[in-house]
Amino acid sequence: MARPLIALLTDFGLRDHYVGTMKGVALGVCPDVTFVDISHEIAPHDVLGAALELGAAYRYFPPATIFLVVVDPGVGSERRGVAVDTGDYRFVAPDNGVLSEVLGTGGPPRVVELSDPRYARLTISKTFEGRDRFAPAAAWLAKGIDLTALGRPAGPLVRLDVPSPRITGQRIDGDILRVDRFGNLITNVDEAMIADAVGRWAVVVGGRDIPRIVSTYADASPGELCALVGSSAHLEIAVNGGSAAEMLGIGRGAPVQLRRDA
To answer: CATH second-level architecture of 5-150?
Structure first.
C-alpha cells in the first residue's frame, strides 16, 4: 500500500522553523506520511499567488494526495479553517480564497470546517494555526479518518475573482497572472484559444509588440522577446536567456492583447 502523501504550499520561506515544525507535528500524528514541498516562496500574504500556484500544480499529483496550504494573512481571526474533498484530492487550508483554482473541477466537493478540537493541538496559537490546526488535520486525513470527522459541514467557500480572458471578434484581451523565477510572464490565455487560429496572432503586452510566437525558448534568438505556450498550457511572454518581467518592467495584472491577422 502506498504511503500517504501531503503536499505543502506556504509563504513561510525556509529561513525560519515554520515549515519544519508543521512537518514535525504531522509526523507525530501520522509517522508514515511522505511530504512534497510545492513551494514555500509565495510572496508573504499573497493569497492569489498561492491559489494560482496550487492550480498549476495539483493535478500532477497522485490521486488521494492531501494538500496542506497555509498562506493566511487572516491568521487568528474569525476566518474559517476548512478541509475539502474533491473526489480525487483533499485540501486543508484557510477559507480565504486560496482554493479558488481547485474548486469546481469534477463533482461537488465535500467541505467541512476544522471545528472538532480532537483533531487539532490542545493549544492553538493565534499566529501559527498552520502548526496547531492545519497540519494536524492534514495528518489525521493521511492517517485515514473520514473528512467529516474533522468538523461540521462548511457550506460555500470564499472564492477569489481570478481574471478570465475576454474575446471580442478577432481580439483576445487577457492578463498576466503569474511571474515565475525566470521572469516569464504567464497569461490567462490558454492554448485552446489560439490553437485553431488561421493566420498569425499579433501580441501586445505592456504596450510592447511581441515579435512572434515560437514553439520553444530556443526558437528565439538570445535576448529576444517572444511568446509561446508554456508547460501550463497558457500563453507566456519570455526572453531567451533573460527575464521578460525585467525587460518590460511589468508583472501580475498587466494587460495582454492578441489580435488575429487575416
So the answer is: 3-Layer(aba) Sandwich (3.40)
